[in-house]
Amino acid sequence: MQVSGGDLQRLRQLNSLSSIRALRESRAPLTLTELSAQTGLSRASVGDVVTDLHQRGWITEVEPTPGTMGRPAKRYRFRADAGHVLGIDIGVHKVLAVVTDLTGRIVASGRVAVDRNTTRPERLEAVWRAVEAALVASGLAAADLWGVTAGSVGVVSREGVVTRVEALPDWPGVDLAGHLGERLSCPITIENDSKLAALAEQRLGVAAGVQDLVYLHVGRRPGAALILSGRLHHGFSGATGEVGLMDITGWRTMAVELEGCPVADGAPPEEAARLVFGAARAGDAVAQEAVDVYARRLALGTAAMVLTLDPELVILGGGFSRSADVLLPALQRALEPHCLRVPAIRPSTLGEECVALGGACLALDQVAERFFSSEGSLASPVAPQRLG
Amino acid sequence: MQVSGGDLQRLRQLNSLSSIRALRESRAPLTLTELSAQTGLSRASVGDVVTDLHQRGWITEVEPTPGTMGRPAKRYRFRADAGHVLGIDIGVHKVLAVVTDLTGRIVASGRVAVDRNTTRPERLEAVWRAVEAALVASGLAAADLWGVTAGSVGVVSREGVVTRVEALPDWPGVDLAGHLGERLSCPITIENDSKLAALAEQRLGVAAGVQDLVYLHVGRRPGAALILSGRLHHGFSGATGEVGLMDITGWRTMAVELEGCPVADGAPPEEAARLVFGAARAGDAVAQEAVDVYARRLALGTAAMVLTLDPELVILGGGFSRSADVLLPALQRALEPHCLRVPAIRPSTLGEECVALGGACLALDQVAERFFSSEGSLASPVAPQRLG
């Protein structure tokens, strides 16, 4: 068989990729012998690859455990701090920016409070302040970032344009990618906030390893996002999980069940649900009935999605998930009459960093595509620039 | 860089895979120069690979076009007839078996009529007769088959067990894989019939190249199947597209709108719809109103799926799709009030061979996985045996 220069280069790249994959996925550092066993590559090939990856800065040698007898074998690990990405949550009530390493661990964050009355220019200014704060806290410069994903309320098209937002009248049409691109030179992606929360739970949270799930964003106006075959389902125009728009589900008006409950009498709408869930938790029958009615409405739209998709898991996320101890059993009961099989239901575990963390996860997917896929190139780890 | 024997073998395999992929995907036969350009491999590597693939029987040399001047370059094409698969549609009213080549072209088929009152043993016997007929017509023996997929009415679990069938009381629990395995030695898969119809349309029919679609099986009891990110969505327990089970959609009883229409007076239920669609087509206002009511019911469940998934396309399949000229515009109108964006709706084009053809497509996916994926092995083309 003839082996050309191009063949050799391709072979070397494939060997590097299988080695870096094994090192990234391993929790513990690996010796050359272990790496050879895991990749199926010869010990000699692994030696070549490791020297090369080490020189380029993708992996680091780990100090031998003190007290080890004899001459210990060298061990290597993937350098999680070789690069960093930024995830941003642009919500109604807060803007949160998190900087993570290449494993999705948060190393720094910045947060700015906003509200329903914050104008578009003010909200965009808040985005900068949150990003600046996260960068200052991380000790990194904007040019060090390898990727940015921002999550926004509303429907976000495949091109990253916010096309529909019920909560913020002046937000549709905002050019977030353009805005972020004024000061950030790395690749930028915009996505819907609930979709990013679903992704974060599937990568780092309660749904680790689950292939098909429905993420319920449960609050005054419920929404939903889908992970299918392990990937975020974007849909043709970005408008997935919108079953609540059908009047038949009652999702657009269902919060009145909680806000009209006598135990919430006089409280502002934002407070009402917490009071009702609290009273139900304490055994108040009227409050429990209001929760049950809310859960039955929630179950209608949820059942439509469950019967359509037959997911393994439903995640209860969003503000009301803090009362999952009360709401989850009520939802479970309300789903049973509708579903062939009620999937497992679990509350979100990532809390208020969920959306920003999901942004980091999506940016990391793109980093992996660029560097670690079979079409990728393991050049030295440097922050990628946008095209054009 | 050191190159080991294992490295060389891997390199040769990767070169073979990229060459066979290019040849499979090309409509026209390719010269070595063209193959080199399409794969990025050197001319010398391509020469090696083509000699090897030709010897093994995966490709064939094409005769030069008569009248070509000078000495024409040799041209090669993928041998679609190197292997064959079997797709079987086990329905309420028929059993249809089709034998296709490796591109999904039907080379022979066998059909046996059954009905609602056919017992389980009789239906299983009909399966054998249809399979035997298709094999006789194709001139192949059972041992020549590379893969078999049978589509059954009802919910089919990931393990291939039929778990729920409303139309055939004695069918749940039937061990189709075990039955087929008594006489067929190749890998066997069982799947729901509507899912296979959806796959066939996406591979060979009206939805070629569409990534996300909802396939509506429209008849006396509508059903649905999903293709998401270009792949059949099976769901956790196989029960996807079952939104019609919610009473709120009215899908379980909606055929009465057509059967109760005065223009169908006295006709058996199986005939009624055809009469009503025909009268509506001819301009009968009462029949058109019955169609509109039916379409509004159909739209409720369809909208729930469309709002959940935001698909590019909805396919109108099943028996009533023969009246798509009347039903499709009514469905389109009925969806508009519910949907943010009404997807394109197109009638199925593959007709009554759709399910069997989808079975062949799924069997071919498994053939491609075994031979042509990066984990595959291009050993000589021989019919694979089941494990165990």
UniProtKB/TrEMBL annotation, chains A, B:
InterPro entries: ATPase_NBD, ROK, Tscrpt_reg_IclR_N, WH-like_DNA-bd_sf, WH_DNA-bd_sf. One of its GO terms (molecular function) is DNA binding. It comes from Nonomuraea soli. One of its GO terms (biological process) is regulation of DNA-templated transcription. Keywords: Kinase, Transferase. Residues 20-61 form the HTH iclR-type domain. PANTHER family: BIFUNCTIONAL UDP-N-ACETYLGLUCOSAMINE 2-EPIMERASE_N-ACETYLMANNOSAMINE KINASE (PTHR18964:SF149), ROK (REPRESSOR, ORF, KINASE) FAMILY (PTHR18964). The keyword Transport does not apply. Signal peptide: none annotated. It holds the Pfam family HTH_IclR. Belongs to the ROK (NagC/XylR) family. The keyword Transferase applies. This is Putative NBD/HSP70 family sugar kinase.
